[in-house]
Specification:
201 residues; 2 domains; six-stranded antiparallel beta sheet; elongated
C-alpha cells in the first residue's frame, strides 16, 4: 500500500538531519541531467525535474532537491519505483516522512527468500544428530541464492568462505565431523543475517 505524504531520497538515518550525509546539490544535478528520463523544470526552481517517462504522462511526476535530500509529494507507485532507481544511483535510500524505508518488490522478494533460508537453517541446527545430506543440500541452495543476488561480489565470497573445509570424515570421526558441520552452519547463518541487516544495494 502506498503511504501518502512526502518521499525522500536520503543518505541520513533521519532525513531531517542530513549534516555530514547530504546528497550534494551538484550530485543531484549531475544525476538528473544524465538520466534520459528526467527533464529540468526551471519554473519550479533550479533543482526541480519532471519524470518525462511516467507511464501515464502525469504532470505531478516531479522531483526536487532540498537540504541534502531529493523528494516528491504523494508520488504515484510508478514514480516511487523511479525514485528507488535514483536512490540506488545516488547511493542512498528511499524513506517516507516517518523514516520508514521503502523497499522495492524485488527487495521484498529477496528478503523473503533469505528469511526462508535462515529459518530452515535454524531448524537444521535443532536436529539431533544433524544430518550431513540435509546440511549440504541447505548450504548449496543458499550459495545459489547468494550468487543470484550478489554475483561474484565480495559478499558472495564472504558467504562462500563461511563454509570451512572439514578436516575429517563422518566415518572416521562422526562426532567431530558433525560438530564441524554445525559450526559451518552457524557461520553461514550469521553471514545471511548480516546480509539481511545491510541496506540493499
Amino acid at each position: 500500500m502506498t503511504v501518502a505524504g512526502d518521499y525522500h531520497i536520503t543518505r541520513a538515518e533521519d532525513w531531517t538531519e542530513t549534516h555530514g550525509t547530504e546528497i550534494l546539490e551538484r550530485e543531484w544535478q549531475f544525476c538528473a541531467h544524465n538520466d534520459g528520463e528526467l527533464g529540468s523544470d526551471p519554473a519550479n526552481g533550479p533543482n526541480a525535474f519532471v519524470w518525462k517517462a511516467h507511464p501515464e504522462g502525469s504532470p505531478d511526476a516531479w522531483l526536487d532537491w532540498s537540504q541534502g535530500n531529493v523528494y516528491s509529494s504523494d508520488p504515484a507507485p510508478a514514480l516511487i519505483a523511479k525514485m528507488q532507481e535514483l536512490a540506488g544511483t545516488l547511493r542512498a535510500r528511499l524513506v517516507t516522512d516517518d523514516n520508514r524505508v521503502v523497499l522495492s518488490d524485488q527487495t521484498e522478494r529477496e528478503k523473503s527468500v533469505f528469511n526462508e533460508l535462515i529459518e530452515s537453517g535454524r531448524r537444521l541446527l535443532q536436529d539431533r544428530p544433524m544430518q550431513k545430506d540435509d546440511y549440504f543440500e541447505w548450504s548449496d541452495a543458499a550459495r545459489v541464492k547468494i550468487v543470484e543476488r550478489y554475483g561474484t561480489s565480495p559478499k558472495a565470497q564472504e558467504f562462500s568462505k563461511a563454509r570451512w573445509e572439514i578436516a575429517t570424515t563422518l566415518e572416521a570421526d562422526p562426532s567431530s565431523y558433525l560438530t564441524q558441520i554445525g559450526a559451518n552452519l552457524r557461520r553461514e547463518l550469521r553471514t545471511l543475517e548480516k546480509f539481511q541487516r545491510d541496506r540493499p544495494v
